Amino acid sequence: MTYEIIHLSKDKWKDTILPIGYTTDKYYDVTINKTDRGFAIDIEKKNFQEPVTHTPEEYDFPDKLYKDHWENAYAWGVVIDEKLVAAIETDQELWSNRLRITELWVAEEYQKQGIGHALIEVAKGQARRERRRAIILETQSCNVNAVDFYLNEGFTLIGMDTCCYKNNDLQRKEVRLELGWFPEEKKNLKLEEIEIRRETEDDYYQVELMTQHAFWNKFVPGCTEHYLVHKLRTDKDYLSELSRIAVKDGEVIGCIMYSKSKVVDGTDVHEVITFGPLCVEPKWQGCGVGKLLLKETMKLAADRGYKVIVIFGEPDYYPRLGFKTCDNFNITTADGTNFDAFMGIELAEGSMKGIKGKFHDAEVFHSIPMGEVEEYNKKFPPLRKLNFPGQWD
Known about the structure:
Blueprint: E1 5-8, H1 10-13, E2 22-35, E3 38-54, E4 73-80, E5 83-93, E6 98-106, H2 115-129, E7 134-140, H3 144-152, E8 156-161, H4 169-172, E9 176-181, E10 195-197, H5 204-215, H6 225-232, E11 238-248, E12 251-265, E13 268-280, H7 289-303, E14 308-312, E15 324-325, E16 331-332, E17 342-346, E18 357-360, H8 370-376
Parallel strand pairs: 6-7, 16-18
Antiparallel strand pairs: 1-4, 2-3, 4-5, 5-6, 7-9, 8-9, 10-11, 11-12, 12-13, 12-18, 14-17, 15-17
């Protein structure tokens, strides 16, 4: 079966009821015993004497999308023949830097077809892109199919509430279980563990594929940066002598591409340089690869006499590497504005002195037709375009 996961906008889907129900002949029996040393908790799968059915109608507050108390809710789903057949909703628990799955539902006739797994992967993707430390969710000890599904998806038990629904939840065999999933902890790579070098023509496909993976769905559904890499190589402003790739065990895991740019103040034109994209294969993100690429190439640029780098980049990342917003240097964008993502750095002490005006990067950054991008995408394995919170409008 082929299906498309789409964003379920709040304007259209708020208060849509999800008819979550199930029948089970098993349950996870939760027992808590007080001991001399504290408490002994045991959770064991057992059989009901008779199957138990839970239906949406038995609840005063049915499951539905975009409930008012989920302030940062965001939902995706599968719609077939104009009918919603599956949905997942998340909410950003900002105070603890966790992501909560508030709803997950797949219509019975569409279960066991991989849709639930695909929706969980969307939530994991959101957690990674937002650098959440965990995904958490609630289910019930009697919903064995759900518990086993989440365990199979890499979740584990992180807690419970024995009086969430009623005061006799233990006796009713319907205890609230909290499950959690944790992104893999990563260690920084050392310079000697990777090879940083200029790319060759044989590297082009790997570099573009890695760039596509790094930026896919990051700022918009899909991305254009891999095609930008392709176009940039033949652009008159491209600086191949500064650009580098990172290779580990024969695999391209990162790249940084430099180009000429300028700061214009009336008739005064100051040559500066910029880099972009700087990117890392997702499975190696968080391992310091970008920092190694940047440090290596900044030294190259300084040794070749370049004085200033100006970029558009992530304001949560680059200031840690010494970049400052361009309002510190009397530099604005071409349209005269400043914002947190517009940054610069001196390659030598005082090298910004005397440089002020409006920044202009290479024309290639502003001439990426979407039709050409879509055609170029055919060179690579297909990827799913998705909306995520925080993408550009």
